[in-house]
Automatic annotation (TrEMBL):
Protein name in UniProt: Cytochrome P450
Transmembrane segments: 6-23
Pfam families associated with the record: p450 (PF00067)
GO molecular function: heme binding; iron ion binding; monooxygenase activity; oxidoreductase activity, acting on paired donors, with incorporation or reduction of molecular oxygen
SUPFAM superfamilies reported for this sequence: Cytochrome P450
Biological process terms in GO annotation: lipid metabolic process
Originating species: Quillaja saponaria
Family: Belongs to the cytochrome P450 family.
Cofactor(s) the protein requires to work: heme
Amino acid sequence: MEISTALLILTAITAYLLWFTFISRSIKGPRVWPLFGSLPGLIENCDRLHDWISDNLSACGGTYQTCICAIPFLAKKQGLVTVTCDPRNVEHLLKTRFDNYPKGPTWQAVFHDLLGDGIFNSDGDTWLFQRKTAALEFTTRTLRQAMARWVNRAIKDRTHKLVRLGYQKMASPRLSTKPLKASLQRFILPEVMWKFKKWLRLGMEVSLSRSLVHIEKYLSSVIDKRKLELLSQPKDGNPHDDLLSRFMKKKQSYSDSFLQHVALNFILAGRDTSSVALSWFFWLTIQNPRVEEKILREIYTVLIETRGDDVAKWVDEPLSFEEVDRLIYLKAALSETLRLYPSVPEDSKHVVADDVLPDGTFVPAGSSVTYSIYAAGRMRSTWGEDCLEFRPERWLSQDGKKFIMHDSYKFVAFNAGPRICLGKDLAYLQMKSVAAAVLLHHRLVVAPELKVEQKMSLTLFMKHGLKVNVYHRDLKGIIASIKKKREEEINGNEFLDVNKE
């Protein structure tokens, strides 16, 4: 009996090793281990996850497949992950075969505790309804005007006060970073593992539970307050026309839980993403004085034309959206920031039916596909040999006067296809307004003790925020410099005209 049991075990091990040898040779990418697949590599590189994925994609020509769970019958379904940043594949996922690649059950299970059935975490009719409702808000004329008021108020009451204290931290409230980091950890680990940790209340599952209690309490108070405001609102008064109010005014009766998740999804979409992008923008401009100088000259040139050369008029009020619209080079610098440091670095889809990606990769039903937005902006095959350089000029026409938006499947920072970001244009205006206001008033220098690292989260936060030393910017001296340069240009043009005659 003992011999037969030993033989049975030996046969099973031999069969598994033969199967594992075959499966590991049929996929390319990071090393795959027996049983645990590529999970050891993920854990080892968890502090540099996005760079690790990017390195693997570069080595594999833009697409690789790996096995998270190296167990027969699971490896080619739930255990198989296809990772890509090839623009052709990205377009296939986000547009051409959109219906075949929903968020899917794995993503929804991972983020359900935090995002519920909100727009980031839903598919089908639930997603479409929220999308259409939100689209109505983003197409109203009043939104741009309201956004201008909100941004100007934030610049006056918050941004300038923070910077004057000598400490600039553009990352979003700590309230949102813990649950996002815990949710990302869930996404990395096999479902059975994170559910086991949740059941036993281990590790980051504890902080996630605590954070969710605080988030629910805060959002509940917001919703209760808005309900009272809507009930007591006079007929001839100014109606609330924001996203939350739109959902609350619908004929359908939505639970407070659903409204909380709707609100949280849009807060994360519009608040964290912009603040994170600005953190990386200021850091990159500080590292690249040439870029900062060009941004400043553009701001000064616009203000001289709109407000004259009285410096007091420059700083009385933040730039209007009409003035901000003219800041082409600043928009290019922000786009270049998002190319290198996208606010949402990775996204994942579930494969409904067997399919073949444009590059020839077969993806079986039940598996998942991750497209790396972070890696997509760092591929030499897409952006050239200088792909890792911060060069805003790649977003401008040859004469430097027009902004050129790259293909949305190469530059996926705002998503693409039917799920492309509704607030993209307003996000640019918001970020340009804050960036222009800060750079106009202050010169920033990164604090010597700051170690700039990425925080492993669903959103690409700076691990320690952005700490800077702040110095007053001398605007009078700069005006004199601009005037002198203009006079030289005028004299140069006159000289050319005389020679032509």
